[in-house]
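Incident review: delayed structure delivery

Summary: a single-chain prediction request sat in the queue longer than the usual turnaround. Root cause was a stuck worker, restarted by the on-call engineer. No data loss occurred. The affected request and its eventual output are reproduced below so the record is complete for anyone auditing the incident later.

Affected input:
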Amino acid sequence: MDRRQYDDDFSPPDDLRQAIERLQQWGQRIRPGIGLWAILALLLLLWLGSGFYVVGPGERGVVLLFREAVEQTEPGLRYRLPWPIQSHEVVDIAQVRRAEIGFRTTEGAMTPGTRSGTRSMPQEALMLTGDENIVDVQLFVQYRIQDPVKFLFAAFEPESILHTSAQVALRSVVGQNTIDYTMTDGRVEVQEQVKSYMQKLLDTYQTGLLVSEARLLVVDPPSEVRDAFHDVVRALEDRERLVRESEGYREDIVPKARGEAAQMIQQAEGYKAQRVIRAQGDAGRFLAVLEEYNKAKAVTRDRLYLESIERIMPTMEKFILPDGEKSGIVPLLPLKEMIGTSDKEVPGNTPSAEGNKR
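Output delivered after worker restart:
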């Protein structure tokens, strides 16, 4: 029975009828007039007490005055005027409800041909995409009651309206996109578009429902061509992966090359500065020596000669030969080899030549 329909032909239960008869018998024993008034007073109290009702946590009560909503009540013990003046409806607004588009959840043991405990509904799941391909789509929707008054009285069977609105929104959004976009990159965007479109339809029909989530569970081509489409999708994914890898390699090698180039430039600039400073120092030193040379040429000449000899002689191999004809060595000959030969041929000869290397 619809919760908005009420039984006008009210008849008291048998227990209440028996209680009334006992009260009448008890009232007849005392006094006919007083017993009747007592029964009427007790019935009035029971009638007035029937106006108490309880609204549980997460629920909302709707008070009806002659079947017209006049008030919404919060959780707790509440009171209204007794029926038929006022009545009430209690709606659970915290419960998250679900709707399944393109499939139905199976209960009990899984039957052959089902997938993950679900049963496909081809009349809802199969639809055309923007590039005129057929795609199998399954949508899972979560919603709750936002406005109890609209949910009860503004629309007829609001949950059925939600199911139809979800199909309309899904077919409309999928029909505006290609199958590749819906299956890969645009999946999240398609979900958001379906959710937004469906909420607009629910608000237009005044269902009082709020969609909290719309998620695409399955977006596949028909089973006859599913393998081929999956191969295409894998190829697209491989292409995207290779592109990302190449971009990552570029992001890795380009900064290194720029760093090495900057390092080489800095080294060249440092070498340039070093050479310039050294050249400036050598030029300054030469000018200072020239100035001193101009002051005393002979002294400066001798000093330069001595400094050059001090700088060159320590690194040279020297032979000191005595004057006279005792050595018998011609200075132009290879002295080192001849001195060694002369020492071997003349054992008693002790030339004054040092023949030592310093």
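Verification: The longest strand covers residues 134-145.
Action items: add queue-age alerting; document worker restart procedure.
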